[in-house]
Design goal:
The complex is a heterodimer of chains A (362) and B (633). Chain A has 14 helices and no strands. By secondary structure, chain A is mainly alpha-helical. Chain A has one domain. In chain A, α13 packs antiparallel against α14. Chain A starts with 11 loop residues before the first helix and ends in a 5-residue tail after the last helix. Chain B has two domains: 188 residues, Penicillin-binding protein 2a (Domain 2); 337 residues, Beta-lactamase (3-Layer(aba) Sandwich), CATH 3.40.710. Chain B is 40% helix and 18% strand. In chain B, the strands form seven sheets. In chain B, strands 2, 3, 4, 5 and 10 form a five-stranded mixed β-sheet that branches. In chain B, β11 and β12 form a beta hairpin. The termini of chain B are far apart. Classes of the chains: A mainly alpha (362), B alpha+beta (633). At the A-B interface, α3, α5, α7, α10 and α11 of A face α1, α2 and α3 of B.
Chain lengths: 362, 633
């Protein structure tokens, strides 16, 4: 195999779309925080983006086949890290895990997302049949199930759930049979009541307030209501950057992170949302296109893994902002403020670039 | 190698994923479209409600000043706690914690909420007047988790301590739920209004118009901008006819007794002093009064809440002899040199009527009858005049009807007559009843204010001015019932004699002042009633004294009632003397610009209240007060 890594081979369109999204994010972080004690946050986010781009470029130089070679090692390391976090985390941080200061947990989870992308790509590309057999499906399920269970124990329901679409998209592209799909969906439906039993009280509360928001206007129901007020008040053209009363008055909860799109919707209106969501759609479609042009199934699975995770993030976060889904704490990729989340996205994009750079190999 | 190209990529399924992505983004965009375009107006309203908060700016009530501009009733700033009700669920949920934090019973809060159902949701309601330091700390520390509480500065009433002038000034209280409902939005729950006395009578003048501050707030309720501010319009002050110095003397004179004292300038109708004891501390009502305390005040057998000066309807006793004397001379039904021989008792209609002087007064004519207060003389006068003639003159001179003073709930007293008894009891008037009425006993009852007005009017020759407390009362009503010069001279001479010719009130004689008057000691219940009560309880007589000075064209008339005081001469007359003496002291020293009441003698220290209140007084309002407060120190 020879290396063909000309500068022109990079997906410049993809990068342009990503930079467009990042710019909107930085702009809105600035607008949401410049009048508060958080002022200057947008500078830190820019540094994270810069660091992300560098990491992406570095990762893209390393042949993804070599990375996939080490998949079993990554997997063991990832699971071990999750176990370690559980052991240390419980004694050290107890139930206060979701406070952003304690980002150590999230970092491990973010890394695990990357590892599972790689592991599943490796696993599915080794399946040599057109259709996915039941045995392979179960194996894939176990592969994802172990880290998923460990993350749930942290407990971090949001991140754990991200692994599900990863497995679903992988299985779908690996040729899952319809009858298996039906059984999996049925099993999943049956697991819901059982899973409910294992949810922490605050998690249950989030779900119940999503189903009946009027019962808890100051808890997460309040957050969703305030988010919807900000979005609705924005109208078509928005109130202008830095002029959104709900955003500037602090009514929008965590307006620089999880609910950044609500802040953007208020200040830039439906027009701004249209631009943002179009950029996300372009990003995702561009990823699918890259998958379609991948040199091999392994490359396709890597790219689609990244697409599944990003798409799921966008769906869950945006749906939450407009009150279609409960509050889960999943940030909006590339827009929400956050170091590890941003780094993860760029690393995933690094894998995508990596695949693209090698599409003509062979 | 674990990878290879044995299989083609699942292009069809990848294309399906693309459509899923497009569908997903489309769905999300639809969600935004719905919120931002279709329902935009609704959410814009919610956003406005989120960030705009309206806080009432409570207007201070007008102050009450005495006739020289000294502050009698003032205001002081205090914080009230408001409950914001925009978000009913949040209110519901936080109510128990608020109740605990502010130390208000939960049921009370719930009741207040129920009572304000009719008030628009955006208007906060006052749940606790007079916030303590702890309450303020509670509100500040829970700004984030209970963003429903707000504090407003209000002006609260400050009355002089110890029940000073409590009945005349009255007190303010919170408006009732029904009033809020009927007021058409003028009243909010928690608003105050005058409930009794002058506070009620002149509520419309005293009450101001509350302002409103509409401000922008952030999510923790902090003000970040102001939209508009409608300044409150303070209530207008009222200046009273009360002379603070005389009021102090009156309060102190009556202290510890049960009764009333009212001082009038009969020439103008000005009420110079008015007090009734026992008196509640009006400051109790200025903040929400606890139910227990209210109950106690209301059920006190001494009835501290009634203003005895205008509401005590009691037999006037011998004071009525002045009216009898006037009626006798004016009617000319009896020769003016009519005289009898008093042996200490007499017989009428087969019944024995006693004189208070068991040994008798000997030969008694009109002058001596008044001076010595001879009952037997007036029994005879009454018998000869007859009840209807007595009633005619007494009514013409103001008994049995309201004086029309500018205070609510004045009582009219009662002047009995044949017609009255027939109308009310459908019974014939017995001649024996006339004998009792002739000495101010029986069915006749009067208020202290009525007696002051009547006696003052007689001394003026039949000019009866409407008593009033508001200094610039337009058109003071005046009733004229001309009494001849001869009669006036004789009657006033007799009252002069009561004090200055060894009469019943000789003990209160003042050097250099023509103090005149008439004592009275009235039985609380009749002889038969006393028998029925079985003498188990002591029924002491009510003591009366109505005094005035100078003898003709009096400047001041003082009526004193001391319930269960027994003897008018000893229990009531000295009080009137003190007030009249103070009036003259002040008058003579005012000419030399150095009059001061010796306040140290009195428990009531008005300057304490006035001085405390001064810093909150707005500079533009009554600079005179400051000066006046200094000058009386």
């Amino acid at each position: 195999m020879k290396q063909t890594a000309g500068i022109r081979e990079y997906d410049w369109w993809l990068l342009a779309i990503v930079m467009g999204i990042c710019s909107l994010g930085v702009l809105e972080i600035y607008s949401a925080t410049h009048n508060s004690h958080l002022a200057g946050m947008h500078w830190r986010q820019m540094w994270w983006i810069l660091l992300g781009v560098v990491c992406m470029l570095v990762l893209s130089r390393l042949d993804y086949h070599k990375i996939l070679d080490q998949a079993p090692v990554f997997y063991l390391v990832g699971v071990a890290a999750l176990v370690a976090v559980l052991a240390v985390g419980h004694t050290r941080f107890g139930a206060k895990r979701w406070i952003p200061v304690l980002g150590a947990f999230l970092q491990v989870s973010e890394l695990v997302k990357l590892i599972i992308i790689i592991v599943l790509a490796r696993f599915f590309s080794e399946v040599r049949t057109e259709q996915l057999s039941l045995g392979d499906l179960v194996k894939a399920g176990v592969l994802v199930g172990v880290p998923l269970g460990l993350i749930m124990l942290q407990p971090d329901l949001g991140t754990a759930l991200v692994l599900v679409p990863l497995a679903v998209v992988g299985a779908f592209l690996a040729g899952i049979q319809w009858k298996h799909a039906v059984v999996v969906i049925a099993l999943g439906a049956m697991m819901l009541p059982v899973g409910w039993h294992f949810l922490k009280p605050y998690q249950k509360e989030r779900v119940t307030t999503f189903l009946r928001p009027e019962e808890d206007p100051k808890g997460s129901g309040y957050q969703i209501l305030q988010s919807k007020i900000a979005v609705g008040a924005g109208g078509f053209w928005g109130k202008g950057l830095g002029k959104g009363s709900q955003n500037q008055g602090g009514f929008v909860p965590v307006r620089y992170s999880d609910f950044i799109l609500a802040a953007l919707a208020e200040e830039l209106g439906f027009a701004g949302v249209l631009v943002a969501l179009s950029l996300y759609m372009a990003l995702l479609l561009r990823l699918v296109q890259n998958a379609q042009r991948a040199n091999d199934r392994a490359g396709m699975f890597v790219v689609m893994g990244a697409a599944a995770v990003l798409g799921f993030h966008v769906l869950v976060n945006v749906a939450m902002v407009i009150g279609y889904m409960p509050v889960t704490g999943i940030p909006l990729p590339l827009m929400s403020y956050g170091g590890s989340a941003t780094l993860f996205v760029f690393l995933a994009l690094g894998l995508v670039m990596n695949v693209r750079l090698r599409r003509f190999v062979n | 190698m674990w990878f290879g190209n044995e299989h083609k990529l699942p292009q069809a399924r990848l294309t399906i994923v693309s459509y899923v992505i497009i569908g997903m983004i489309g769905l999300l965009l639809f969600g935004f479209w719905k919120l931002q375009i279709i329902e935009s107006e609704h959410y814009a309203q919610l956003a406005e409600r989120n960030r705009i908060r309206a806080i009432p700016l409570i207007a201070p009530r007008g102050r009450m000043l005495d006739r020289e501009g000294r502050v009698l009733v003032d205001n002081y700033p205090s914080f009230s706690i408001l409950l914001l009700r925009d978000d009913p669920q949040a209110v519901e949920r936080n109510l128990p914690q608020i109740a605990e934090g502010l130390g208000v019973p939960l049921e009370d809060l719930q009741k207040q909420l129920d009572e304000s159902k009719g008030v628009p949701k955006f208007q906060p309601i006052m749940i606790k007047p007079e916030a303590s330091q702890a309450d303020i700390a509670f509100i500040e520390s829970h700004r984030v988790d209970i963003p429903l509480l707000e504090m407003v500065m209000v002006q609260r009433r400050r009355y002089m301590p110890g029940g000073f002038m409590a009945h005349a000034s009255g007190y303010v209280g919170e408006v009732s739920a029904e009033q809020v409902e009927k007021s058409n939005g003028r009243y909010r729950p928690g608003d105050f209004e005058g409930k009794t006395g002058l506070e009620r009578q002149f509520n419309e003048i005293l009450v101001g118009t509350d302002g409103l501050r509409r401000m922008l707030v952030n999510s923790v309720g902090k003000e970040v901008g102001r939209l508009e501010q409608k300044e409150p319009v303070p209530g207008k002050p009222i200046q009273l006819t009360i002379d603070y110095d005389l009021q102090v003397v009156a309060e102190q004179a009556l202290a510890g007794r049960k009764g009333a004292l009212v001082a009038l300038d009969p020439r103008t109708g000005d009420v110079l002093a008015m007090t009734s004891h026992p008196a509640p501390d009006s400051n109790l009502f200025a903040v929400r009064i606890p139910r227990e305390e209210w109950k106690q005040l209301n059920e006190d057998p001494d009835r501290p809440l009634i203003n005895r000066a205008i509401q005590a309807q009691l037999a006037p006793g011998s004071v009525f002899k002045v009216i009898m004397a006037t009626a006798m001379l004016e009617s000319k039904a009896i020769p003016e040199n009519f005289s009898i021989f008093c042996t200490g008792s007499t017989d009428f209609y087969g019944r024995v009527f006693h004189c208070w002087q068991k040994h008798g007064h000997g030969s008694v004519s009109l002058h001596k009858g008044v001076v010595q207060s001879c009952d037997v003389f007036f029994y005879n006068v009454g018998k000869r005049l007859g009840i209807d003639r007595i009633a005619y003159y007494a009514s013409q001179m103001g008994l049995g009807k309201k004086t029309g003073i500018d205070l609510p709930a004045e009582q009219s007293g009662l002047m009995p007559s044949e017609e009255w008894k027939d109308r009310v009891f459908h019974q014939k008037w017995y001649p024996g009843e006339t004998i009792s009425v002739a000495i101010g006993q029986g069915a006749i009852v009067t208020t202290p204010l009525q007696l002051a007005r009547t006696i003052g009017g007689i001394a003026l020759g039949g000019i009866f001015k409407q008593p009033h407390l508001l200094k610039d009362t337009k058109q003071v009503r005046e009733e004229r019932f001309p009494i001849s010069e001869d009669t006036t001279e004789k009657v006033t001479q007799a009252m002069f004699g009561v004090v200055n010719e060894g009469g019943t009130a000789a003990g209160v004689r003042l050097e250099g002042i023509e103090l005149c008057g008439k004592t009275g000691s009235a039985q609380v219940i009749g002889a038969e009633g006393l028998k029925r009560a079985g003498r188990q309880r002591q029924f002491k007589d009510n003591a009366w004294f109505v005094g005035y000075a100078p003898r003709r064209n009096p400047e001041i008339v003082v009526a004193v009632l001391v319930q269960e005081g027994e003897h008018g001469a000893s229990a009531a007359a000295p009080l009137a003397r003190d007030v009249i003496k103070a009036y003259y002291d002040k008058k003579s020293k005012r000419n030399q610009q150095q009059y001061t009441v010796d306040y140290k003698r009195f428990e009531v220290n008005p300057n304490a209240a006035v001085a405390q209140a001064q810093p909150v007084a707005k500079p533009e309002s009554h600079p005179r007060d400051v000066h006046a407060a200094k000058s009386v120190r």
